[in-house]
Amino acid sequence: MKAFLVDDEFLQRKLVKKSVDWQSIGIEFCGEAEDGEEALEKIFMLKPDILIMDINIPYVNGIEVSKKVKKVFPETQVIILSAYGEFEYAKEALSFGALSFVLKPLNPKELTSELMKCKEKIQKIQQQKLSVKKMQEAITQNQKEKILLEQISGINIYEDSNEIWNQLGISTKKQIVVLIARFQGGNNDKRVFEIEEMIQDYYPEYEMIIINQRYTFVLFGEADMAYKTQMLCTYLQEVMNKNRTWNGGISRVHDNIRDLKSAYREAYSAAQKGKKDNRLLIYEPVDIVEMLQTLDYDPSVFLYYLRKNEHEMLYKEIEIMFDQMEEKNSSLYVVHYVVMDLFIHISFFMSEAGVDFSCVIKKEQQELTSLQNNGSIKEIKKTLLDILEKCFGCMKTRKIPVTQRKVQDAIDFIDDNFYKKDMSLNMVAGEIGANASYLSSIFKKEKGCSLSRYLTQVRLEQAKKYLIEYPDKTLIDISESVGYSDVYYFSKNFKKYYGISPSKYMEERKN
């Protein structure tokens, strides 16, 4: 909180500055001026919270200066310094919102008391604004959940109403994927929090609603959503394998939020199948599912052989799989689906090993994409074998980037830029020159936590420092200074991490 002094008498200004113990009352003396014109220029630049204003000053008198300031900054508190003969002026000042006036000659205790009154009033205004903002955010969140539920159920389909989606802060231009997670047992908050952190590594922008004890995530993205979704599914499945206490389903990529109903149905259908085996499944059309059931195809077997370095068994499994697909006259779509799924698992394995594999096989990745519609089974098989050869070559020659250096680069970037509101895995990866999926994997391996969790930790630790160092700052100011655009979400995260709300933490530190 800052105070600014306006008085044309040098000795009077000196007396005001020396008569108050600014540090002990938690107010910063930020500047002074000797006339009205200088005062206005400095006040609009420094934006003080409190003005200590003499009435009779040159060029623009104190009343006019105060009026102009209050017009731009209505929450600014004004203390008028007045002599006995200026009482009528003082009454006018009180009529437009000056909090009080202090008679000259100056009494230091009286001035300090009036400053504390100003401070308390400002804090009360800020607290009221915060309460209103929280209430508005809660109402907006409730509206958002209501409209998303209506869209999912088909009660109201907001196809042509961009205005509604824009008001809720939901993009109508980005593609969407729906993920449904269902947990067994208690302590769901902790597990939801862990899943959210993993989701944030791939999709920083998402919404979550709860439908019949199922946690439904609507993920928003643009480029490579199908690839990212498969990587996220593999990532989550690996975590699930360690502790099978939840299952779920993921939809295919849909054009925008208007397709939410279809996307939800797909995710729900996949979740029903995933429930039987305690797995997380991506929705596939019936013909794909039926065809896959006729094949001896299990991607976990391939991943197992990769980890065990069983090259011969891998090649044998691939031969069997392709023989079966040719024998059953599988469509090119099915063949491409299987090979892409294997490619995802190979990429995941290489990420575990600390290899940014996407940089190694850019050519083969492009070939796979182009062969989807215009290739043959033989060509697709050859591309898969080429990818495997490069995988083995990387592992054999140990042409592996220094993972510790990449992780440290990421940490340094986060530590220096945590306050940026658009900070995400993709931003960090782009800054340090790494593939996002690769960075996500090696970061978790090196640090024992996801990159999103590390970013959250840095932000919240910094927030704790700010709460102690700047007790007069509002929670809105502090949340924005550490990279949160939503104070409600900041408070929620703070309480999750430390078991106490930021406002309560601030109160306890004061006491």
Care to give the gist of this entry?
This protein is α/β, with parallel strands linked by helices and 511 residues long.
Produce the secondary structure layout.
Elements: E1 2-6, H1 10-19, H2 22-25, E2 28-33, H3 36-46, E3 50-54, H4 62-72, E4 77-82, H5 87-95, E5 100-103, H6 108-153, H7 162-167, E6 175-183, H8 188-202, E7 206-211, E8 214-221, H9 225-242, E9 246-250, H10 260-277, E10 280-282, H11 286-293, H12 299-307, H13 311-327, H14 332-352, H15 357-360, H16 362-374, H17 377-397, H18 403-417, H19 425-432, H20 436-447, H21 451-469, H22 475-481, H23 487-498, H24 502-510
Parallel strand pairs: 1-2, 1-3, 3-4, 4-5, 9-10
Antiparallel strand pairs: 6-8, 6-9, 7-8
Structure description:
Strand 3, helix 4 and strand 4 form a beta-alpha-beta unit. The strands form 2 sheets. Strands 2-1-3-4-5 form a 5-stranded parallel β-sheet, with helices on both faces. The chain has 511 residues and is an alpha/beta fold. Helix content is 63%, strand content 11%. The model has no long low-confidence stretch (mean pLDDT 81). The two termini are 19 Å apart.
Number of beta strands? 10
> For the terminal residues, how far apart are their CA atoms?
19 Å
The whole-angstrom Rg is: 31 Å
The low-confidence runs, each spanning 5 or more residues with pLDDT under 50, are: none
> Average pLDDT, to the nearest integer?
81
Helix content: 55-70%
In this structure, how is the largest beta sheet organized?
Answer: 5 strands, parallel
Outline, from the CA principal axes? elongated
Tally of alpha and pi helices: 24
Structural class: alpha/beta
Strand content: 5-15%
Strand order of the largest sheet: 2-1-3-4-5
